[in-house]
Amino acid sequence: MAAELHKLRFLPTPRWTLLVCLGFAAMGAVVALFDGSEAKSTYVDAAQVITGICTVIGSIVLGVWVAGVEYGQGTMRRVLSSDPRRGRVFAVKVLLAVAAALALTVIVWAASALLLLLAASANGAPSPGGDIVAASGQSLVANPIYAAIGCGVAVLARSMAGGMTAMLALVFVLDTALTALPVGDISLGSALREIGRAIEGGSGEQDVGHAVRVTLAWMVVLLTAAWARFARTDVT
């Protein structure tokens, strides 16, 4: 675990991912400031759209990177030489992906909330703080799950680029296609949004229990497949 934390701390990808996400959050606040709106919803929408999307993508990047960097730099054999327990190595990487995504989400949403509060105050709008905190709940639930699945997909693909491509296709293409199937909504994105709305105290089109089952099914299938591939085949 210590070695994994050192990678997270000292390698450039996590740092640049955080900086880019913070940059998008600042951009959203600047746009809201110059919009000059006195409606609280303007600032909440800016947080939901810009901060929400950038932290999803940032969490996917971190999740894929945690495993994909080993394949990209050819260091997976070295990792397994220091700890040959493949199940433990895989579990540590998934947990690190979850923790990194959660930390990224908290930091970026906190910065976004502060900047949007300042923008709202400058324009004489009511404080959007409470609504922004409520809106962040969906990201706090969804992003660690995306990161965990991203880590598993990178192990399946054995490639940083392959894992990233597969995850972006899953989130932004396959999810949309799955909502059109006549078998009920089984898309991961819809399930996570429903869970997020339930946490915020709202209600949506799906049953929350169904959304939880769909989310668990995606996680179990993809992470089990990734663990089986990692544990039973050569790392090259």
Average pLDDT score: 87
Which of globular, elongated, flat, extended, rod-shaped describes the shape? globular
Percent in strands: under 5%
Work out the count of structural domains: 1
Q: What is the number of helical segments per DSSP (H or I, 4+ residues)? A: 9
Give helix % range: over 70%
Major β-sheet annotation: none
For the CA atoms, what is the radius of gyration?
19 Å
Would you tell me the structural class of the helices and strands?
Answer: mainly alpha
What is the CA-CA span between the terminal residues?
Answer: 22 Å
List low-confidence stretches.
none
Instruction: Report the order of strands and helices.
Output: HHHHHHHHH
Say how many strands there are: 0
Notable characteristics:
mainly alpha, 83% helix, 236 residues, single chain
Please sum up the structure shown:
The protein is mainly α and 236 residues long.
Characterization of the model:
- The chain is an all-alpha fold.
- The protein has one domain (2-232).
- It contains nine helices and no strands.
- It has helices at residues 2-10, 12-35, 40-73, 76-82, 86-122, 129-157, 160-178, 188-200, 208-232.
- α2 packs antiparallel against α3, α3 (40-73) packs parallel to α6 and α8 (188-200) crosses α9 (208-232).
- The chain is globular, with a radius of gyration of 19 Å.
